[in-house]
Structure to design on (994 residues):
């Protein structure tokens, strides 16, 4: 048994989400997506002497939308603060952020997979810093394209008790931000950055232990692995009679378990015993958290109200209007699909690929049962998108055509196989509605007598297949079936053909 | 070398084509080049000539060159001027050429004025004597052994000394009004928000306000008409809540029917006897013109300087943090594009700041530090609210509060340099109006026996700037002083 099983995991999450506004938070510069260094800057985002920030209303509105979507309390008046720290990528050597009156406090989010509710501490609006790139020769270069990009920092309560919950949260929040159209939410491009605060405690205890903050988490996998590792490391410390310290740690994803490197990190007095940690790591494990700085080394940010920006009133009517205009959120949407009979996996896929979900919803709204709508969309539309290399934001078949297709099938006007094999490909290739395809190509179901006749003819014409069938080789049916299909131009129902073969075999 | 022509008269002559702006500018540039007061840190002849040519071309073409057409103006060197070095009086910014104009510079040039040079100041506006300039002190035009006041001492001396008729300064705790009083010219700190701060190198952002210097209230009014107005890019700026122009308000104004509130607490403080006598005589002169005088009190005057020192230095400690030696400042051994050594950054930056700036950064950093914020910053904010409430109560039914601008006239160079607290105490009558965000004007009201000018301060309710200027115009006329150095 891993030592981690003796201690309960407690995690809180902080997310920095770059808002997808047209311009930066306090100037008119466009946001940067990989442009050459220092080409998207101006005196304001470079912090030149005498410049003043001007608040971007669009970014403010997007942060407000997050606050409202998370059910947060929005203050009547919000304002900004200066957070002072000195770093070469921070032009003013202070960051304009919100400490005392953030845009939202409290609130909660229903997770997609588990349906659990996670509580929040706050969301606040702040400016991003520039970026340092280390040249490998001891020098670093600084690029201010990112400086001033609007960020919403979303801080949860320490409500996570498992890595699965953390993963569920990252999935749900990512979907939420996309659904709200406030963030591109592409973690690999850095527009979504997660940090985890991890502590552990004896199972059943209500007290929170000392927490560590983990940085440098560049993927969902890294977050989950880092939380798993930290759970184990802190449990091993406690089991050895030591106490975890409040500190900031870095995720090092390349580390392969080995005692030498592990023990070089921090003094033994504050190091979890390697054997206990290694014993809890699964086969082939990679990655560990590394000590970065202790609480004692933490900077004093010397927050003070930002005197260059006025207090911003947020009228209750504005909050109400934002609330009224909210789209359906991922958690409730996922639950709705599950309640409609879809599997957890199907439901999740339709929320994650919201274009498909929207298509399903359009079919369902037109009367197609949810299960059928999901099947058509996942199978028929999925195949079309796959073949044509399209995304779900560019589905080339109008939902009305699929609704009509469903009507053809459900009304039994034509056999299902006929509709799928003969009508559907032409709906896609010719861009016509199913009934128009049927009319144009004269597609009709072959009547029972004709199927019998065609089957009987094929029976006569394929003695070898008949002999094989009589010998028990079911595969031989294919030859008969194929011949009937050729003769009926594919309009015969395979079931009818098989039924006649069964009669002939008796 | 001095020229005493008024700005309004110069503009009128330029507009009528009787004077060429190019000639006016050339004469002013010649005075700046021979500046005996070290009021200027540098002239900007290229910019001045180009502007003057434009004005002359506008006049020739029958276009409106603006109400300040051809009037030379000096700009305090903490206001950014595109293409013209802007240092804020600091070695740290030596060589900094802004790519943009401060909004106020754009405005005065749009009104036709000709920027001829940048004036001296205490480094980053931190001081009351202009002795804290990294480039040496400015001299008082009335007595070159004395200070001009500060921090806008260069602008005050340039105007009072007859080098230029108009100048811009900035006022965080008295930095326009005190040098105006010590140099014998008129200066106004507008209501907070009336004038854009964009392009002003910040000291205490919630206290800073740009304002005008002139030799007469009429000229001051003409400049104010160009300066004031909402700047959408400065979110702390507002559309002034007054109607009409300063120029109109300054004409035909009267003290009759005005109510002046003499601040008892100010006259009870330690005050130079000649300053007290001069202010009291000026009040009597106003009464003789029909003004009603009543005594008012400001109970929390004693809180003003401590609260100001906490708030101004706290804001300054963050405003100046950007001068970290990467892009600005004195670097130990680094040239051009050579990488900066992060380890030596802080020490080399500290070498770039003067001792007064270092002192205030330390004070402000301390006040914001963990465990001190509540005791200092929040307390100071409370004091600020109390002081503002005091002022609003005292101004109820009163047009302007009256008192001395400075407790002393111009003092000898070097006298207070070794005693920062004595220097800070000079701000006793001026800082509270910045804390309260109110408009206040310093008007010359007399002279000491030694011939040093004395100023009286008029403080009004928020957005009463126009009324203050009208009262000052009438009072100026009643006092009838000759304010040219050496003319008495």
């Amino acid at each position: 048994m891993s030592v981690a099983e003796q201690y309960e995991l407690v995690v809180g999450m902080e997310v920095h989400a770059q808002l997808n506004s047209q311009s930066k938070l306090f100037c008119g510069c466009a946001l940067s997506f990989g442009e050459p260094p220092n080409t998207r800057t101006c005196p304001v985002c470079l912090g030149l002497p005498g410049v003043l920030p001007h608040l971007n209303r669009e970014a403010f509105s997007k942060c407000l939308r997050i606050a409202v979507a998370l059910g947060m309390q929005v203050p009547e008046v919000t304002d900004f603060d200066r957070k002072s720290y000195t770093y070469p990528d921070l032009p003013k050597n202070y960051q304009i952020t919100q400490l005392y009156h953030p845009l939202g406090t409290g609130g909660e989010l229903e997770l997609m997979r588990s349906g659990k509710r996670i509580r929040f501490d706050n969301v606040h609006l702040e400016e991003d810093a520039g970026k340092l790139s280390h040249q490998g020769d001891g020098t670093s270069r600084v690029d201010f394209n990112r400086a001033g990009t609007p960020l919403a920092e979303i801080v949860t309560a320490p409500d996570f008790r498992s890595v699965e919950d953390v993963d569920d949260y990252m999935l749900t929040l990512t979907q939420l931000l996309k659904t709200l159209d406030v963030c591109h939410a592409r973690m690999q491009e850095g527009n979504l950055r997660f940090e985890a605060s991890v502590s552990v405690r004896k199972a059943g205890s209500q007290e929170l232990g000392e927490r560590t903050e983990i940085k440098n988490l560049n993927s969902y996998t890294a977050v989950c692995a880092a939380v798993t590792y930290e759970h184990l490391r802190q449990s091993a410390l406690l089991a050895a009679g030591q106490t975890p310290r409040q500190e900031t740690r870095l995720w090092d994803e390349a580390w392969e378990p080995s005692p030498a490197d592990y023990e070089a990190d921090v003094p033994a007095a504050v190091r979890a015993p390697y054997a206990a940690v290694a014993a809890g790591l699964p086969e082939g494990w990679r990655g560990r958290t590394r000590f970065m700085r202790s609480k004692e080394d933490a900077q004093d940010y010397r927050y003070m109200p930002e005197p260059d920006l006025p207090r911003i009133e947020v009228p209750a009517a504005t909050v109400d209007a934002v609330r009224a205009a909210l789209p359906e959120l991922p958690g409730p949407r996922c639950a709705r699909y599950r309640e409609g009979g879809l599997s957890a996996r199907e439901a999740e896929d339709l929320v994650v690929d919201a274009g498909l979900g929207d298509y399903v919803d359009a079919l369902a709204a037109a009367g197609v049962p949810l299960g059928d709508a999901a099947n058509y969309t996942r199978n028929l539309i999925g195949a079309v998108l796959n073949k044509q290399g399209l995304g779900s934001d560019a589905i080339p078949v109008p939902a009305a055509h699929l609704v009509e297709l469903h009507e053809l099938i459900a009304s039994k006007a034509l056999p299902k196989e006929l509709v799928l094999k003969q009508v559907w490909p032409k709906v896609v290739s010719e861009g016509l509605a199913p009934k128009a395809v049927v009319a144009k190509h004269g597609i009709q179901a072959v009547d029972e007598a004709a199927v019998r006749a065609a089957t009987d003819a094929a029976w006569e014409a394929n003695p070898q297949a008949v002999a094989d069938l009589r010998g028990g080789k079911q595969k031989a049916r294919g030859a008969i079936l194929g011949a009937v299909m050729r003769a009926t131009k594919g309009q015969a129902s395979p079931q009818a053909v098989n039924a006649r073969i069964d009669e002939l075999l008796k | 070398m001095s020229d005493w022509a008024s700005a309004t008269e110069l503009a009128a002559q330029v507009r009528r084509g009787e004077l060429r702006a190019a000639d006016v500018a050339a004469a002013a540039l010649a005075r700046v080049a021979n500046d005996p007061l070290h009021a200027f840190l540098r002239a900007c002849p290229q910019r001045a000539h180009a502007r003057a040519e434009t004005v002359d071309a506008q006049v020739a073409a029958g276009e409106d060159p603006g109400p300040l057409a051809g009037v030379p103006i000096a700009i305090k060197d903490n206001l950014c001027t595109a293409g013209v070095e802007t240092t804020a009086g600091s070695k740290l910014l030596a060589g900094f050429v802004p790519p943009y104009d401060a909004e106020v510079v754009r405005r005065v040039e749009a009104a036709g004025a000709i920027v001829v040079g940048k004036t001296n100041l205490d480094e980053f506006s931190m001081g009351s004597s202009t002795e804290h300039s990294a480039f040496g002190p400015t001299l008082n035009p009335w007595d070159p052994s004395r200070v001009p006041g500060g921090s806008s001492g260069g602008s005050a001396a340039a105007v009072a000394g007859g080098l230029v008729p108009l100048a811009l300064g900035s006022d965080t705790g008295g930095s326009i009004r005190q040098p105006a009083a010590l140099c014998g010219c008129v200066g106004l700190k507008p209501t907070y928000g009336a004038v854009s701060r964009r392009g002003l190198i910040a000291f205490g952002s919630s206290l800073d306000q740009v304002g005008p210097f002139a030799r007469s209230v009429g000229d001051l009014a003409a400049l104010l008409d160009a300066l004031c107005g909402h700047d959408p890019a400065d979110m702390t700026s507002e559309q002034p809540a007054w109607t009409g122009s300063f120029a109109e308000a300054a004409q035909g104004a009267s003290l009759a029917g005005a109510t002046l509130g003499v601040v008892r607490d100010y006259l009870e403080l330690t005050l130079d006897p000649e300053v007290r006598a001069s202010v009291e005589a000026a009040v009597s002169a106003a009464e003789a013109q029909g003004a009603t005088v009543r005594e008012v009190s400001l109970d929390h005057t004693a809180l003003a300087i401590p609260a100001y020192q906490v708030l101004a230095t706290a804001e300054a400690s963050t405003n100046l943090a950007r001068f970290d030696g990467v892009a600005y400042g004195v670097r130990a051994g680094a040239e051009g594009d050579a990488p900066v050594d992060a380890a030596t950054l802080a020490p080399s930056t500290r070498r770039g700041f003067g001792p007064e700036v270092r002192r205030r950064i330390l004070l402000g950093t301390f006040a914001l530090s963990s465990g001190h914020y509540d005791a200092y910053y929040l307390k100071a904010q409370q004091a600020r609210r109390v002081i503002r409430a005091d002022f609003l109560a005292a101004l109820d039914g009163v047009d302007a509060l009256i008192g001395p601008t400075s407790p002393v006239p111009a003092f000898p160079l070097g006298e207070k340099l070794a005693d920062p607290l004595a220097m800070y105490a000079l701000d006793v009558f001026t800082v509270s109006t910045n804390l309260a965000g109110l408009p206040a004007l310093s008007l010359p009201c007399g002279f000491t026996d030694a011939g040093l000018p004395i100023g009286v301060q008029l403080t009004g309710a928020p957005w009463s700037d126009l009324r203050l200027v009208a009262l000052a115009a009438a009072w100026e006329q009643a006092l009838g002083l000759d304010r040219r150095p050496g003319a008495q």
